[in-house]
Each structure stands twice: as C-alpha cells, then as structure tokens.
Amino acid sequence: MTDDALDPRVARTRRDVVDAAAALLLEEGWDAVSHVEVARRAGYAKATVYTHWPKRLDLIRAAIDQICDDSHNPPTTGDLREDLRVSLADFATDLTEGHLDRLLAGVVERANENDVVQALRQRLYDTGTSAMRGILVDHLAPRDVEPSLALLIGAVLVRVTFEGKPATRAFVDDLIERVLGTADEASPVSARREPKSRS
Questions:
Q1: Are 70 and 77 spatial neighbours (Cβ–Cβ below 8 Å)?
Q2: Which CATH number fits the domain that encloses residue 79?
Q3: CB-CB contact of 38 with 62 (8 Å)
Q4: Which of 20, 71, 150, 169 could form a disulfide with 42 if both were Cys (CB 3.0 to 4.6 A apart)?
C-alpha cells in the first residue's frame, strides 16, 4: 500500500479534484477541463492538481474512470422487451439530462490522437452498453447480440443527438420490434445454463 493510500488528506484531495473534473467534463465538455479550472472548482492550489495529475489528459482519464465507476443500470425483470425498453429509456435520459452526448463527442473527436483516448472511448462504450448487452445475451442467439446492440444504441443516439427528438415510448417500442424481428431468440436462459451439481 502506498503512502498516499494511507493518508486520508491525500485521498480527500484526490476525491475532491476528480469530482470537480468529472462535473466540469459533463457540464461543459472536454475543452473546459484544465488544471486551473479544476483547481478553482475543487478549492485547491493549481500546483496540488499538477502534482497528482501532471497532464491534462490525466485529469480527463481520472474523471471518465469515475463517471464509469459511478454509473448505475436499471434492474432487469427477465422480460426481454420490457428490459430493453427501460434500458433504452435510461440511455436516452443519460444523453440528454446526464450530458453523455457531450462526453461522447469529446472522446470520439479525439480518439485518433492517442491510445489513451481510444481506451477511454472503449471504456465509455462498454460501460454504457453493458446492461443492454447482458439483456440481449440472455435472450438472443449469440450471432445476433452485437448487431442488435448496435442497431438499438445507434438508433437512439441518432434520434436524440442528431435529430434532436425525444426517444418516446412509441419510438422505442417500434425500434425494439424492428430489431427483434431480424434476430433469432435463443432458448430460455435456464435451459441454456449448465445445471448446478448437487453435493
């Protein structure tokens, strides 16, 4: 264990600074995140922020890691269509009210700059789609999981971000039926899993 991990003051400083960086990233976007502004928001000296995060990208990576770690997914019920409906509605809300669209735009715009940003883009995608992927894995044939995921996520992203329209219940229901209409539903999960051995 490092000295930093043992010192509650350092832990508090790290938490406060990353909280400020994450809020700034979500509220104002990639370009707004700087050592000066994060230090001002967090209430620490600029030198303190530089000590722990020497590069601007260090701050952004810490912020995105925290955003992903703090993400929560709606509980599932086992009903394919209802679970997809709730998951897609949650994704649409994150895009509009949670400023996920701004966060994604900043990462996608810079993903070709270096491997770190590419990894952050992948982390955001994996985090944002993990719940829906799990739903699809439990209900669809393996070959249909990724194409269905891309169609569902892509359609809501275009609808909300590019068209500027709400992902209404009618839109989501129609989307789900169109996507599931091209996919093969697998056998029930209980039938596909190996039974537990009894001792």
A1: no
A2: 1.10.357.10
A3: no
A4: 20
